[in-house]
UniProtKB/TrEMBL annotation:
Lineage: Bacteria, Pseudomonadati, Pseudomonadota, Gammaproteobacteria, Chromatiales
Gene source species: Candidatus Thiodictyon syntrophicum
Protein name, UniProt field: YgiT-type zinc finger domain-containing protein
Domain of life where this protein originates: Bacteria
UniProtKB keywords: Plasmid
InterPro entries noted in UniProt: Znf_MqsA-type (IPR022453)
């Protein structure tokens, strides 16, 4: 995994590929492989611009 810094607290963070689900039932949409910055300290997630 790539290592970077949290844009809020400056602590170490990782760039992870995650999936997000929107809606439910027949209206469910799942988007996979979204690059997110995940803070190791506060566990906050931020969408990474280009990586």
């Amino acid at each position: 995994m790539n290592e970077t810094r949290c844009p809020v607290c400056g602590e170490p963070a990782e760039i992870r590929q995650i999936a997000k689900a929107f809606g439910r039932g027949n209206d469910l949409l799942v988007i996979e492989d979204i690059p997110m910055i995940v803070c190791r300290t506060g566990h906050e997630q931020y969408i990474a611009a280009e990586r």
